[in-house]
Amino acid sequence: MREAMPKWADLVLIPLASLVLAFALSALVILAIGEDPVAAVRMMVSGALGSTYAWGYTLYYATNFIFTGLAVAVAFQARLFNIGGEGQAMLGGLGVALICLSLPWPHWALALPAAALGAALFGAAWAAIPAWLQATRGSHIVITTIMFNFIAAAVLNYLLVNVMRPIGAMDPATAKFPPGTHLPSLHDLLAPFGIAFSRAAPANITFLIAIAACVLVWLILWRTRLGYEIRAYGQSEPAALYAGIRPVRIVMAAMLISGALAGLMAVNNVMGEAERLVLNAVEGAGFIGIAVALMGRSHPFGVFLAALLFGFLYQGGAELALWTDIPREMIVVIQALVILFTGALDNMVRMPLERLFLALRRGRP
Amino acid sequence: MDFATALQILDSTVRLATPLLLACLAGLFSERAGIFDIGLEGKMLASAFFSAAVAAVTGSVWLGLSAGIAASLVMAAIHGAASISFRGNQLISGVAINFLAAGLTVVIAQTWFSQGGRTPSLIGAARFEPITLPLAETLHPVPILGPIYHELISGHTLPVYLAFALVPLSWWVLNRTRFGLRLRAVGENPEALDTAGVSVAATRYAAVAICGVLCGIAGAYLATALQAGFVKDMTAGRGFIALAALIFAKWRPWQAMGATLLFGFLQAIALRYQNIDLGGVVLPVQVMDALPYVLTVVILAGFVGRAIPPRAGGTPYMKER
After folding, report:
1. Which helix (H) or strand (E) element contains residue A272?
2. Which of A107, A334, A336, B20 might form a disulfide with B99, Cβ 3.0–4.6 angstroms?
3. Which residues in chain B have their CB less than 8 angstroms from residue A146's CB?
4. Which residues neighbour A81 within 8 Å (Cβ) at sequence distance 6 or greater?
5. Residue A365: what pLDDT?
């Protein structure tokens, strides 16, 4: 029996159709609150793509979403739903802060690998307990990772208020990181090539690390034995068991990689942008990773594209909130609709399209 | 701690446990029917906003409550369509509903009231008033029992009494009625129900609708009784604490009441004391914040009394052809 649809339709057409539906509904919401959707789109495009300053913010947000999107995608490949990206990224921030503040770093080139390692280790450690409980005790990973998000928030709140706050400071945040940990921005990186990029925008070298992470995740998933086992386990657990794949090992490996990727996001927002650890540094990026992974069909390249799209939406939405009466939360609505249509209502989009393709095929034998 | 302080903390426990209990019972009906629901938070939030908005405009808490329930039912309908009719992923649908509510409530609140994503403060008949039970004043001078009756049992708003009355009612519906039997069966073994000629989809939609109504009452209670109006993200994770309580209670009504009272007590303590001195060891307030979640993970891990969810939970039902 042939598939109802060609592969390109499954990979490109369905996500696009879902996106169109999500955007159409968002446009209706904008109309309903008495604003002009066309003008809104125009403003978003100029605000997110119209200058190197705008691009700098779009790419900065996209970097966050690449990491959290990859984190969710890797877990999805093993059919695990990691909702804990938010908490893992928080803990990643703690790892970055501890490393940046512990030594008087002479140069960012030394501080960056150390901080990235710290971020990945702390993120992975926060994913390890839910992973181990899922693998050995069968505790539902969705619930445990949600609980760990809240526990992470409490831990960070405690550490920032009671332990890591500099004496005399009022706001719950760590001290400013030493100058030796200052990461080069895209402005610094592109200047030697004679390309003028905005100095004020927060996009930094972490964007390149995010692209490298996409390639690395692709290599792990499709070019290594472990990746094969992760995907096999995700496709069919009984078949994987029969092939001698150990579930405990796969669940642990997939979740540790996932947690490490979520933790790595902190290199971008904590080290690259804020240069200190503040409360709520993640700002929901861990959850946006869910939308990004669904949209990107759990493939690193898809995640990259979807993260760019959400970076655009985020920066464009901030501009809208600045210049119009459309509040910033409109982005949360769009994000919700994308998750709804690409994730939960997938069949609603898929079934009519499948019928269409079947009818086309019957018409042309 | 003197008697009066203890009474105050317990009184605040009851107030704080009420939205948790309503949401927990909501989740109980849905999950016992095999529909996982991590969208309790979103349904409560939607109801909190619409109940406060309508109550603020009309001045009637009852119209507010109806609007809240309606909003929550719309969210429940989306969740039902996604997880029953379109056989989608119930967890992802729940996540989407949480974000939809978080975003839409602020967008609409800003458009309607232009007060930075809140509703105007509710006064008078736009809120649920405390109910003084009969003889509360007369019995007040009676030692111990008098103050307990006066402070702790009397003087709550209507949804509080409703929430606690719903506990035995839920138990009775689930365990002593035909509908309850079907609801539990559809969560454990939907094939059996289908074979018996009962519609799996209809039973599950009914459960999801009950969940919507109860979340609606919980949200309306938050905005019109516990507080006086809607503010952005006012549910503050209560939907997830209710979910934790549901697991803690192993999906049973009486235990749900116990678990939500425990978690409400932790919230009441955290509200009143910043740090708790336990004879030398000082517990920071964040421990109280994290305790419900830690306890739930411990229970889920199965080291202390294993929690086993309904067997068909989370899986869409496909009729055999």
Report:
1. none
2. A336
3. 38, 240, 243
4. A72, A75, A141, A142, A145, B91, B92
5. 54
CB pairs A-B closer than 8 Å: 153
Neighbours of B316 (CB within 10 A): 20
Domain range annotation of chain A: 55-356
Is pLDDT at A217 greater than 80 in this prediction?
Answer: yes
Test the B interface: residue of A141, A143, A326 with most B CBs within 10 Å: A143
- pLDDT, position B321: 64
For residue B233, what is the nearest residue in chain A, using CA coordinates? A329
- CB-CB contact of B229 with B223 (8 Å): yes
Tokens of B87: 């056989």
Interface touch B103/A154, C-beta < 8 Å? no
The helix/strand/coil state of B141 is coil
Report pTM: 0.91
Instruction: Look at the alpha carbons of A240, A242, A245, A247 in this order and tell me if their dihedral is positive or negative.
Output: positive
pLDDT, tens digit (0-9, with 9 covering 90-100), for B14-51 = 999 999 999 999 999 999 999 999 999 999 999 999 99
More confident residue, B143 or B172: B172
Q: From A294, which residue of chain B is nearest by alpha-carbon distance?
A: B92
Q: Do B95 and A343 touch (CB under 8 A)?
A: yes
Q: Say yes or no for a CB contact (<8 Å) between A333 and B301.
A: no
The first and second tokens of residue B119, run together, are: 């509703």
Which of 134-173 (B) contact A at CB < 8 A?
Answer: none
CB count in 10 Å sphere of residue A163: 8
- The alpha-carbon gap from B103 to the nearest alpha carbon of chain A, in Å, equals 5
A56-82 pLDDT per residue, tens: 999 999 999 999 999 999 999 999 999
**pLDDT tens-digit readout, B295-305:** 888 887 876 66
Question: What does the angle CA B45 – CA B48 – CA B54 come to, to the nearest 5 degrees?
Answer: 135
d(CA A58, CA A111): 25
**How many angstroms away from the CA of A132 is the closest CA of chain B?**
10
DSSP B115: S
Q: Give percent of chain B above pLDDT 90.
A: 60
- % residues pLDDT > 70 (chain B): 98
- Give the residue carrying structure tokens 């055999």: B320
- In the CATH hierarchy, which fold is given to the domain comprising A55-356? ABC transporter involved in vitamin B12 uptake, BtuC (1.10.3470)
Distance between CA A158 and CA A160 in Å, rounded? 6
Contacting B residues, span 258-297, partner chain A, CB-CB under 8 Å = 284, 286-287, 289-290, 293-294, 296-297
Average pLDDT, chain B: 90
Q: Determine contact: B72 vs chain A, CB below 8 A.
A: no
- All domains of chain B, ordered by start, with CATH? 3-301 (1.10.3470)
Q: Write out the two tokens for A334.
A: 């769009």
Mean pLDDT for A196-222 is 93
Q: Which of B83, B99, B300 sits opposite A336 (nearest CB)?
A: B99
Helix or strand (DSSP H, E) at B281: strand B281-284
Average pLDDT on A123-145 reads: 91
State the greatest distance between any 2 C-alpha atoms of chain B, in Å, as a whole number.
Answer: 71
User: pLDDT tens across B56-86, in order?
Assistant: 999 999 999 999 999 999 999 999 999 999 9
| Predicted local distance difference test score (pLDDT) of residue B181 | 95
Tell me how long chain A is.
365
**B104 neighbourhood in chain A, CB within 8 Å:** 29, 329, 333
